[in-house]
Amino acid sequence: MKNKKVLIVDDNALNRRVFENVIGHNYFFESASDGLEAIELLKNNKYDIILMDIQMPKLDGISCLKIIKEEEITDIPVIAISAYSNQGDREYFLSTGFDDFIAKPVKPKDLLEAIHFHLNQSPNRKNIPEKEQSINGDINESVIQQLLKYHSLENIKSVYGDFLEEAENLTQEIKILAEFNKFEEIGEKLHILKGNSGTLGINVMFKVTSLFEQKIKNSSTDGIADDIDQLKSSLSKFKQLLENDKIFIKYE
Fold first, then answer.
1. Is 248 helix (H, G, I), strand (E, B) or coil?
2. Identical fold between 5-129 and 153-251
3. What are the pLDDT digits (tens) for 30-74?
4. If you placed Cys at 143, which of 37, 95, 188, 201 could pair as Cys (CB 3.0 to 4.6 Å)?
5. pTM summary value
6. What DSSP designation does 251 have?
7. What does the domain layout of the chain look like in residue ranges?
8. Which InterPro entries does the UniProt record give (predicted)?
9. Do residues 251 and 144 touch, judged by C-beta distance below 8 A?
10. What CATH number belongs to 5-129?
């Protein structure tokens, strides 16, 4: 299968790296950080499928797809990747011309099944077995087990380490933004944290960031200091798990 090439389009570097780790065992890939960069790559290279984030600076995913189709740059399948809240949103993305849709946080299993389905034009999706996922523990170990099928333990450790560094930076930025009541920007930072913690199965942070982001969306800013304290506490707990090697030791 490694004669196929995937173009990953996402403005978040950690998202790109997670996707690269998931698909790199089975497919060649290149990555773009926004829609404009993706169009340039598509004009000069051959790909077999595109994974397209929706919310991006410079040129968002929907506008990028429109240019691709209007200029007939390529006719390969394009899979939209974004958070969504209901079936209507999913249908909207498909109506704009995307061939498929995957909701964030992205499960490695869903990503691989979708790519396989569109590249092989299968009548049915290939079901990749996956253990029932735990939503109660601090870490969803089935995500780690799925990632380990496609990359080395050291590389997966590196991805989680990158997330920790990013989460520390974003948490500090959120604290500063709160001092200036920049709630929309806080929501954007929380969206990144929620998506990446969900994709990596870091439940201890996913739950906190999900609730915090929802409060910001509802313009509920009372008690924001407590929300930030909970975010810092969840980050500290994840950092302790990572530094004590409690997450990966059983896989070594």
1. coil
2. no
3. 999 999 999 999 999 999 999 999 989 899 999 999 999 999 999
4. 201
5. 0.84
6. G
7. 5-129, 153-251
8. CheY-like_superfamily, HPT_dom_sf, Sig_transdc_His_kin_Hpt_dom, Sig_transdc_resp-reg_receiver
9. yes
10. 3.40.50.2300
